[in-house]
Amino acid sequence: MxxxxxxxxxxxxxxxxxGPATRLVTATTDDEVIAVVRDADDSGTxxxxxxxxxxxxxxxxxxxxxxxxxxxxxxxxxxxxxxxAAGEVWTDAVARTVEAGLAGVECLAGIPGSAxxxxxxxxxxxxxxxxSTITEVVAYDRRTRQTVxxxxxxxxxxYRHSRFKSDPERYVVLRxxxxxxxxxxxxxxxxxxxxxxxxxxxPGDRVPLTTARETVLKLRAGKGMVLDPEDHDTWSAGSFFTxxxxxxxxxxxxxxxxxxxxGDDAEPPAYPAGEGRTKTSAAWLIDKAGFxxxxxDGPARISTKHxxxxxxxxKATTEDLLTLAREVVAGVHAxxxxxxxxxxxxxxxxxxx
Length: 353
Hints:
Blueprint: E1 2-8, E2 20-27, H1 30-43, E3 47-50, E4 56-58, E5 63-70, E6 75-78, E7 81-85, H2 90-99, H3 118-121, E8 124-125, E9 128-129, E10 134-141, E11 146-151, H4 163-166, E12 171-179, H5 193-199, H6 209-222, E13 245-247, H7 248-262, E14 271-272, E15 277-279, H8 282-288, E16 300-302, E17 310-312, H9 318-336, E18 345-347
Parallel strand pairs: 2-5, 3-5, 4-18
Antiparallel strand pairs: 1-2, 6-7, 7-12, 8-9, 10-11, 10-12, 13-15, 14-15, 16-17
């Protein structure tokens, strides 16, 4: 277990932003993770959990407390059952499942971060979410001071949300278990329209696993969503805002505003999101509100490849990023009456001005 003091946190995040931590500990076993968490709880020291750092916005002043990097490793595959230690690199884990001929997470290729973060955010992309394959999550419960195993149902998954996200101070994820599918080397049913179009298949069809993974990686790379230290479009947290989900009344008002702004024939993106609820596209809202690719003239700008990614062009501060994010939120709300919600977790700062 490594311990540093007054340690920079920016290099541990994909934004490459944020000030130092008073204390930085890197734990490589579950027992070490639990020991650091218990020590912080016993002493009343603020605790920040860091995995891959791909979903963090840390304030310029840093973190006054203990930052714990979970660097545990472990990858066990038994038939179609997969167990990952929280510190496993997610992109590597997806690649291994494809090599093993197992379907279920192949369309989640290229997503940066650690395996332990996937249930917290209910990570999803290109028609797949981890909630559809996770069977159990092993976590340390800071309230009971016990290691617990939570079933899929107990994780309370919903769109980019979970029990862990709704109660962030309670659980520290240690291991994640998945049930994958042996479809004879084929992917799961292709559910995302863009993926199906690029693959030249109908939604619901299956394709070779390697083809599905490679196609998703190309799509993500084209949007600056695959990490590349030489490409500032990838100095981001991926999608900065979640896609808004509106009830029927709110969606009707929204649709009226869209037509008033864009013309009587304009139709916003609309996807079913449960009874009486419709999901629309945050990227579409941002673009139509006037924030196009590459928007901005400062050190923090919208990606030149995707309007949903806010990026550090190399010399930005966290405050630069938040200023841009607030401008986008205000502009979208003024144009369409919809309030965007940030997807990354903020530490020591808030999107609210």
